[in-house]
Amino acid sequence: MPQTIHFQYTVPGDDFTRAGEASSSVKKALKKIGINPEVIRKVAIAMYEGEINMVIHAGGGSIDVDITPDEVRMVLVDHGPGIANIDLAMQEGWSTAPDDVRSLGFGAGMGLPNMKKCSDDMTVESVVGQGTTVRMTVLCH
Amino acid sequence: MKITPAVLARELGFSVLAGGQSLERAVDCAYSCDLLSFVMGRAPAGCAWVTVMGNVNAVAVAVLADCACVILADGVALDPAAKEKAEAQDVAVLSSGEPVFETALAVHELLSARQ
Question: Is residue B60 predicted with pLDDT exceeding 70?
Answer without folding.
Answer: yes
